[in-house]
Structure formats: structure tokens, C-alpha cells
Design goal:
single chain, about 270 residues, mainly beta, 3 helices, about 55% strand
């Protein structure tokens, strides 16, 4: 099971902080060259295993002749684990700089030699999303979806979620969202659980908004509301801790470093 826990599980988990109905909004809470890093660990009973690292970075660029955001997330197993199970995962996406509507997204993953590629082209003129998905041992799968607001790939969902205004959300309130995963549109939701102060393993304390999220049942997750995300209770809306139950044990990711955040991290307690 440890071989199935690494980077993709975390990125799919962090995207579960969700998207409100006003999903595609202009950039507000991040700026170019923002970067934040996580340590991903596997937890079984009383045993903790440091498994990998994940980073998220934002850039301003041009794409298809217009101003755009270039978002990227990359992760890998720790060097001491490469001999056991080498992981290299990359997620990239381009979005409109003004509306934050996605234009293109791609995932390229190599997990122990098992390759997965997902590509999504958003054609707003024809209101379609063109999907190409490949996994080792299977032919490319092509599909077309009707484009509608609030349908995001995994990576743009992370940033679209951060742009939302959580000031009026109430405890136990559910928020539905849709995310493209493995060439399918998954209807999921989050539930707001309240405000909580948490302390990370590095000693930092954050005042956070806490959410649970419905997961897609599969080889890693059991399904149901078995994932919890703690997001900074300030304008940055950075996920500082993610914890999800899996078929055996749980996977936990904690924020280890951050730089170039647009707003003061007022949720960080001294």
C-alpha cells in the first residue's frame, strides 16, 4: 500500500478544499513566484514514515497570445525511498490571467515505472473540454465534455478554491464542486467544520478553517468524508495540513516552507 500513497494522493487530497459557485474568479490571494512546500508522510498505527515532498509554484506568463497564470506542482519520493519505489509527479496548468478560467492542464506521473498522463484542453469558443488520458499498458483514451463554469482539473481547483470568500460559510455547510480526475468529471463536495488551531510537527501553530471532503472510492481512498484539510484563516487560504484515510492507514501532509505569499500570514501564531 505504501507504494500507492505518495504524491498523487496528496495533490488529489489538497484539491478537495473545494470551489464555491463563483468558481472562476480573478486572481486575488496569490502572486507570481509564490511557493509552498510540503512533507508527505504515511501513518500506520504508531508508525510514521516520511515518504515524499510536494511543491506548488505560481508564475505569470503568456499562453495562446494572452496574459496567463502558469501553475505547477511537482513531487517526488525522498531519495532514501527511490530504491524502493521511485516517484516523480508533475502537474501543470495555464489559466486566463483575468478570469482564472483554465485553458490547459497536464499531469505526468511516473510511480515505480507506472506512467500516467492526463491532458485537458479547454475550448471556450466551442464550450468543450478535450481530454486525453494514458496509463501504462493501456491505449490513449480520448473524450470530450461540455464546458461549464466550475469544472476544473485537479491543479486549477487548488488555486480556484483559495480564491474563494469563506467569511460567510457556516459550520456543517456543504459546498459542491466538480473536478476532472482520470478523464472523468467527479461530483464531490466539502463540508465546513469550523475554526481550529493546529500545531505542526515543526512547532508552528496556525489558526485554521477546517474542512472535510468527500473522496472518490478507489485503490487508495475508501470513499466517504475521510479527508480533512486545515486552511489558513487569513487572506492567503493556504492548506497547512491534509490528512486522509486510505485503505490501510492514512496519508498526512504538512506545510514545511513558504515564500512570496501575497498577504501577511496572520494566521501563524507567534
Amino acid at each position: 500500500m505504501l507504494k500507492k500513497v505518495f504524491i498523487s494522493a496528496f495533490i488529489f487530497a489538497v484539491s478537495g478544499i473545494g470551489i464555491h459557485a463563483q468558481c472562476n474568479v480573478a486572481e486575488s490571494v496569490f502572486q507570481p513566484e509564490e511557493k509552498y512546500d510540503y512533507l508527505v508522510s504515511y501513518h500506520l498505527s504508531s508508525i510514521w514514515v516520511k515518504a515524499g515532498v510536494v511543491s506548488f509554484v505560481t508564475h505569470k506568463t503568456t499562453y495562446r497570445g494572452k496574459d496567463s497564470w502558469f501553475l505547477e506542482s511537482y513531487g517526488s519520493s525522498l531519495p532514501r525511498f527511490d530504491w524502493f519505489f521511485r516517484v516523480r509527479d508533475t502537474f501543470r496548468a495555464y489559466t486566463d490571467a483575468d478570469t482564472f478560467v483554465p485553458d490547459f492542464a497536464e499531469r505526468v506521473s511516473d510511480e515505480g515505472g507506472y506512467i500516467v498522463i492526463e491532458q485537458y484542453n479547454y475550448d471556450k469558443i466551442r464550450s468543450k473540454i478535450f481530454s486525453r488520458v494514458y496509463s501504462s499498458g493501456k491505449p490513449w483514451k480520448y473524450d470530450t465534455f461540455k464546458y461549464e463554469p466550475c469544472i476544473n482539473d485537479v491543479l486549477t481547483a487548488v488555486y480556484a478554491a483559495r480564491n474563494q470568500d469563506f467569511s460567510n460559510i457556516k459550520p456543517q455547510e456543504k459546498v459542491p464542486f466538480q473536478t476532472l480526475v482520470f478523464g472523468k468529471i467527479q461530483p464531490l463536495y466539502i463540508r465546513f467544520l469550523g475554526i481550529e488551531t493546529i500545531q505542526l510537527k515543526n512547532g508552528q501553530k496556525f489558526n485554521c478553517l477546517k474542512f472535510s471532503s468527500k473522496l472518490v472510492e478507489g485503490t487508495i481512498f475508501k470513499g466517504g468524508e475521510d479527508m480533512f484539510v486545515w486552511v489558513t484563516n487569513d487572506k492567503n487560504h493556504i492548506a497547512v495540513k491534509i490528512q486522509a484515510k486510505i485503505v490501510i492507514g492514512s496519508v498526512v501532509a504538512e506545510l514545511t516552507s513558504f515564500k512570496n505569499n501575497k498577504y501577511p500570514l496572520t494566521s501563524l501564531q507567534k
